[in-house]
Fold these 2 entries.
Entry 1:
Amino acid sequence: MTRYKLLTVGQLIDGTGAPPQKNAAILIAGDRIQAVLPHPPADLDESVETHAFPNGTLLPGLIDAHVHLTVDPGAYNTPEFIWARNDDQLVDLGRRQALQFLNAGVTTVRDLGARHGVSLRVRDDLAAGRVTGARVLAAGPAITTVQGHGHFMGVEVANHAELAAAVDQLIATGVDVIKLIGTGGGVTAGSDPLQPQFSAEALTLAVERAHRAGRRVAVHAHSAAGVRNCLDAGVDTIEHCTFATSQGVAPDEHLIARLAEQAVYVIPTLAPWYVLRDSDDAFLGFPQFGLSPRRMSDQVLANLDQMRRAGVKLTIGTDAGTWKLTPARFYDELEGFRQAGFSALETIAAATSVAAQALGIESEAGTIAAGQRADLVIVPGDPTQDFSVLARPALVLQAGQIHPPDY
Ligand SMILES: [Zn+2]
């Protein structure tokens, strides 16, 4: 028998960027939104379970497009942490962090890098209902070069043939998305964030194989040269996109115009630096260039503002799992978007409808409309007046199931 729930709320923000609707109600049938009503119905069948939040705002369940569930935010040195744990321990950590995301109002996360198949195990445990937590789309291990960035938890390839085989093999194991490390990165010793790891030709080969199998491609890229390769190859999402140089972040106007024109989704991952913005510890910024989180934070915010003005599609992704970046810090990424000039409604859209489009799940998630899965959050107030209410969800629903957040 289908179970019906009626939620009545002070206002509803549908995730599209449209203004809030006052005194709205939605009817949920099983795991789906059955109807969005302009006001609560006058009389109701008594079998309908009702929940009233007269001061609350209803939003689509939030989405984090870039996480590492099986990396410990309590570990200062990620490679050392990974080497010291077995796969079962990483899976346990992943389950715990998926639950913490749900408590933060995040109903879907995309995991963009985990050792072996551990993120797939976490995803499958959640999908089967063996544990409770945010729904997971998983890349499995990221594809990198030999000793390249993230090699301690990735698949290393030495040439085009190995790259093609790695893409095919990951698809065969059931990954939802292919993640490639397009340039060097911060936490890997000996890695140069300015140096492309894969040519545009190599990325194109991966994109063609992944798209043929119906999978999207997410590419980690810091420098302009790395971003250009992503654009030439037609990747789906570019992760970080800092336009890093040895002097700091230097947004490239021409490439930003191309990002907007090609409508590529960019996930700027401000949080690793924004959360640590009081720190001068270069190991946590860009150790290769002696850039502290304090300097990186200011510069990535300015870069985000420039991309926003140019009309680039920008999506929330925290890079959770890096130092101090617990699921509860999801809110900090939202706050970073606000600092960079996004309105409250634009920021919410970046964490809901735009994120769902970036992940290819917009027919199911990211907006409040009849037929969508009932992934929802109620926050205790009006986020357009007091943005911080987004850090304190009053109620979370995942596929119509009520989850009282516990923090
Ligand atoms: Zn990452």
Note: Residues 4-60+366-403 form a domain with the Urease, subunit C; domain 1 fold (CATH 2.30.40.10).
Entry 2:
Amino acid sequence: MPPVIEKTKCKKCGYCAQICPLDVIKMTETELGTDIDVKYPDECWHCRACEKDCPEHAISMRYPLSHMMLHMEPQQKRGKS
Ligand code: SF4
Ligand code: SF4
């Protein structure tokens, strides 16, 4: 999963949109004002630049299952001797 922007903390400075190397985050101007969104979540490299550099600490990362280190015990076979 891509970064998650906590809207209540975000000051819409646009810095995360500027620094993202893949333009995953976009700042848009609407009739209601400036908005900041994770527009292309599937393109995220999980480099964490946006998370680290957000001055408001409004960004957190959610990693896809394939990025997590999982330790699973091998499933025991049942009914076989
Ligand atoms: S850098 Fe942080 S505060 Fe600025 S627009 Fe991005 S999420 Fe919001
Ligand atoms: S983690 Fe990296 S690639 Fe993903 S949105 Fe943030 S800056 Fe862009």
Note: The chain has one domain: 3-65.
